[in-house]
Each structure stands twice: as C-alpha cells, then as structure tokens.
Design goal:
By secondary structure, the protein is an alpha+beta fold. It has a single domain, classed as SMI1/KNR4-like (3-Layer(aba) Sandwich), CATH 3.40.1580. It is built from four helices and eight strands; from the N terminus they run βααβββαββββα. Strands 1, 2, 3, 4, 5, 6, 7 and 8 form an eight-stranded antiparallel beta sheet that branches. β5 and β6 form a beta hairpin. 34% of the residues are buried. InterPro entries: Knr4/Smi1-like_dom (IPR018958), Knr4/Smi1-like_sf (IPR037883). This is SMI1/KNR4 family protein.
C-alpha cells in the first residue's frame, strides 16, 4: 500500500488529540501518526480489504491524520461530526471509497479495528449491526494490506 502522506504529528499534537477525545491511542497508531501522519491511499489492488462478516471488500481511501490543511482528512474533524454516535473509547481513523469508516476501539474487550458501514451499503448492515471486525490492532490492519504490496509513505 502506498500512502501520499500528510504532515507527521509530534508527541504534543498526539497528546492534544488524546486530551480532546479523552482517549489513549494505542502505540502502533501513535507511531504511524509520528512517522506518516496519515494520508491518501493510492488507488490500486493493494488497498482492498476482504471483510468476512460482510461477504465483501472495502477499498481504503484515507487514513486520517490531523493536518489542518486537509481538514476533512483529520481525526478531530470526523470525531466532532459524529460526536455521540460512536462507542466509548472509539476513534475514527480512516474511510473507504464508498464512505464507510475505519474505527479503532482503543481499550477494553472489543479493542481493535472495525469497519463501520454507516451508510448501510452492504445488505447485512442494519441499525443493530453495522460494525465489522477487521483486525486486533492498527499494525494488523497494515499487515493485511502489506501482504499484497509493501507499505510506503
């Protein structure tokens, strides 16, 4: 997967996000924000992820950072927009081409990366079930796509 990256975040910027959201981001995601900063994913076969619970694929579009030059690709923009709609300890970390979101639950027994089909694109999605597990961790998400092609920024 190739990412056209945004600005890298420093420790203070990451702590500001954590304070605003009252959340502790996992170390693997913090490292990604420091080294890559988020970015737009190059559109090729490497950004497709099969989600068994959906019986279909999603196509990664953006992994959020917090670069205000790209406001609609920032964690805080989307968290404000969906305030009160997400589970506790959850943060929006990206989206797919068809407007579903990648959600990271940062703590607890449901910790991991999920796909939120908020637009009910898939037939299996409904009000009671539109979150689908992808990976136990952010690094796990990257490994899913890295198996197809190397990860660059």
């Amino acid at each position: 997967m190739r990412i056209n990256n945004f600005k890298q975040l420093n420790e203070e910027q990451i702590q500001t996000i954590e304070t605003q959201l009252r959340i502790k981001l996992p170390e693997d995601y913090r490292k990604f924000l420091k080294e890559v900063g988020g970015g737009v994913v190059e559109k090729d076969a490497s950004n497709r992820i099969r989600i068994d619970g959906l019986g279909g694929d999603i196509v990664l579009d953006v992994l959020y950072g917090n670069d205000m030059e790209h406001e609609k690709a920032s964690i805080t923009f989307w968290m404000k927009r969906f305030e009160g709609e997400l589970l506790e300890k959850a943060v929006l970390i990206g989206d797919d081409l068809l407007q579903g979101f990648l959600v990271m639950i940062c703590d607890g027994e449901d910790k991991g990366i999920y796909y939120w089909d908020d637009s009910y694109r898939f037939a299996s999605s409904c009000d009671e079930n539109n979150m689908y597990w992808i990976s136990d961790s952010f690094d796990g998400l990257l490994r899913l796509v890295a198996g197809k092609k190397r990860i660059d920024s």
